[in-house]
Structure formats: structure tokens, C-alpha cells
Amino acid sequence: MMDKPPYGMIAILFVGAFVSFLNETLLNVALPSIMKDFDVSASAVQWLSTGYMLVNGVLIPASAFFIQKFTNRKLFITAMVLFTAGSVLATLAPSFGVLLAARMIQASGSAIMMPLLMNVMLASFPIERRGAAMGIFGLVMITAPAIGPTLSGWLIEHYTWRTLFGVVIPIAVMTLLFAIFKLKNITPQRDITLDVFSLVLSSVGFGGILYGFSSAGEKGWDSVHVYGAIIIGVFGLVLFIYRQMRLDEPLLEFRIYKYPMFALSSAISVVLAMAMFSAMLLMPIYVQTIRGISPLHSGLLMLPGALAMGIMSPITGKLFDKFGARILAIIGLSIMIATTFMFSNLTMDTEYGYLMFVYTLRMFGMSMVMMPVMTNGLNQLPQSMNPHGTAMNNTLQQVSGAVGSALLVTLMQNRTESEAERLAEAAASVQNADPSAMAEVQAQIMNEAMLSGINFSFTVSVFIAFAALILSFFMKRVKPATEPIREQSAG
């Protein structure tokens, strides 16, 4: 631990992480425009998001190896070069294939950013000041993806989708130049070798699960692409875990789950990521498809929530240092449960101001949970295990986000179909000879059915968040373990 944290260096890492997070959500609003420009199907264009997530899912488990093997300076500069090169290629992409390749290059750079930044923070701050430091980190992690839809909605309305990549290039280049001249090495290195077979198993395991669940909403659970990928992924993951438990230098250290507070924080984070995605996914569908509100205004609806989360993140960090994670998690999750329940009762004419207020309150609640829970778990790990802890947290967040999204979208679709059938039968009993009136009734039936599906998914999210609340009662304040885990397990 150092006497004075390297604030200048952390600022450079923050900016790099911010642009990479921002880019993850910038593209969602632009997918229809890209479909039109390159004349590709919805399932093809979806790969711009799915592919990005898959590369993250494959590379993040390996981040523990990279962080221990290479200096933080080398890693960050390499990550920024890849991210910048991907952004430039995407801006100039002459075809959809080139754009997809550019996204993958971007993702390979951004995958290492978050674990690297978290490790630098853990190495720079003593445990009693980590909450405040991680609170500032939460500002980046939360605000960038939340601002994405609003910013991209505005840019798409005024410029082309290529601008979305163009705006991040100057920031990425400046960050890269600062890193080359100012970045120093502070994370400890070890001479370890990469177990290639573990990397292959990790890629098959996490990649298969992510692909399967993220394709379920579009292809359906009965598609061989979906259940086949999930079965292969689970099998790969079981083999991966078995191999890690037998290696002296595992790619990802699963023995960290012998630390009870880390295991508990992992479980809460997984449940939370699943609940969090409900509003991020379902609100745009409700606002744009059912209510017909423009992408820009649907982005603006979410902006106060993003700002509230951003403002609260450093404050929550300071409160965590003073009071610990349990009380913050209980209050935050209670707010999340209440607001998610309010979202499970949406109607065809719920006011825009009400939606904005409830969404903002929900994000306020979430800001009190995410970083304190994660930091409390990491605090129990000895310094040498930090790279494995951050890699595990980030991998689980990707996987649980994909699983949660697929689950909630499937529940929404199933409820929508059954409700549409019920409403169509009721409408058929009141026959109307006018064809134009019938078309209007059918459109109304579909909207009513989709609204029922969205409300049902939010109801399920209430129970998911409630499970996280029960788990949070078992949290305790911890001090880092001094012994490495292997010595403990041997003893």
C-alpha cells in the first residue's frame, strides 16, 4: 500500500474506463439506422451488441493472469490502442463485416479496463478509505452506461450513427497520449505462465452461456442455437472449474469462495445484476413501442436517474467507510423493491413525469447497493487475490446480466402471447364488420398484451430483488485475510 495514492494516474485510468463503458451502451439506439444503411437483418445487427459482450465474457476471466503477468502501464496502453483502433475502424467501416470486426477489437481493449482499474484502486488505497475510492469508481461504472442511450438518441437524431464512434476517438487518443507519458507501474508482478487449455475451456464455458442466453429472446428457447450453446457452455464451465481447482497457478482462482463475505457479495451482485437489467431493458420497450415516445425522449427519461446514481456514488462510498455495507444495502434494496413494484403497475397513460421520478428513485436505491456490496467482498481477500476477485466479479456480472435479460424478455414474451390470445378471443365475441376498426382493435390488443408482459416481468424482478435483500442481512464488516488461500486450505 502506498503513502499517497497516485491521483493523476488514477484519473487517466478513469477516463479510459469511462469511454469504454460509454461505448458499450451508445450503440443500442443506433441499431435500426445501421440495419437500414447496411441492409442487414435484426438478428445480424444484434451481433454488434452480442459480439461485444462475448469478447468481454471470454477475456475478463483471463484478466487476472494479464494483471499479474504484465505491468499496469503496458496493459492500459495496449487496451487503449486496441480500443482506439477499433473506434477508428468502426467510424470508417465500408461494410457490416468490417463494423462487426471493429466492435470486437474495441471490446478486446475495453474488457481489460475495468479489472485493471479496480486492481489499481485496491493497491492504492488502505482498507479504511477504499469505500470512498470505489465510490468514485462507481461513478464511472454506472454513469457512462446510463448516459449512453440519451447521448446516442440525441446524436442519431442530428447526425449519422458513425458519429457515435467519432465522438470517443479524440478522448481515447488524448487518454492514450497521457498514459504513454504519465503512467507508472504500481501493481505487483509475478512470473506466471498461461494455461492455454484453461483459456480455451473458459472461452467455451462463459462464451457458450453468454451466447445461449443472449440469443434466447430472439431465437426462442426451443432453438438448437440456444439450448445447444447453453449445454456446451455449462459443460465447458464445469471442466474449467475442475481444472482450476487442480492447478497451482489457476487462470481464475475459485478458492476465493472460501472467504464467506466474498462469496456472499458475489451472490448478491449476481441477483442484483439480474434485477437491474429489468428496467434497462423493459423501460425502452414500454416507452418507445407502447407509448410511441421518441428515442431521444426515452433517453432523457433515464438521464436524471443516471445523474442521481453518479452524484450518489462518491457519497455512498464515504458512507460505506463509516457504516459498512449492510445498512446501505438494506436501505437501497428496499427502495429498489418498492420502485420495481411501482413499475409492475404501468398503464397505457402513466405520466411521463411519474415514470421519470420512479426510475430516478430506483437508480438512487441501486447506487447504495452495487459498489458497497462489491467492495465489502473484495475487502476480505488478501492483496495477492485481488486480481482474481475483480476478474470473478466482472465475469459474473456479464453472465448474470445476460441470463437476467434473457429470462425477463422470455417471461415478457410468453405473457404477451398468452394475453394477446385471451384478448383476441374476447374481441372476437364482439364482432365488428368494419375492417379498419378491426385493425385498430388488433393494434390495441397487441399493446395491451405487451403491457401485461412488461408488468409481469417487473413483478418477477420484485422477487429477484427481494432475494438480494434477504442475503444482505447476513453481511458483516471484514478485514483482509493475511494468509493466501492455498495455505489456509492446506492447513
From TrEMBL:
Record's subcellular location: Cell membrane
Cellular component GO terms, alphabetical: plasma membrane
Name of one Pfam family that matches: MFS_1
InterPro entries assigned: EmrB-like (IPR004638), MFS (IPR011701), MFS_dom (IPR020846), MFS_trans_sf (IPR036259)
Keyword Repeat: no
Membrane topology type: Multi-pass membrane protein
Keywords: Cell membrane, Membrane, Transmembrane, Transmembrane helix, Transport
GO molecular function: transmembrane transporter activity
Keyword Cytoplasm: no
TM annotation in the entry: 7-27, 47-67, 79-101, 107-125, 132-155, 161-180, 192-213, 225-242, 262-287, 299-320, 327-346, 352-374, 456-475
Principal place of residence: membrane
Domain named Major facilitator superfamily (MFS) profile: residues: 9-479
Database matches in NCBIfam families: efflux_EmrB
Protein family membership: Belongs to the major facilitator superfamily. EmrB family.
PANTHER family per the UniProt record, alphabetical: MAJOR FACILITATOR SUPERFAMILY MULTIDRUG TRANSPORTER MFSC
Protein name stated in the entry: MFS transporter
Organism of origin: Domibacillus epiphyticus
Higher taxonomy: Bacteria, Bacillati, Bacillota, Bacilli, Bacillales
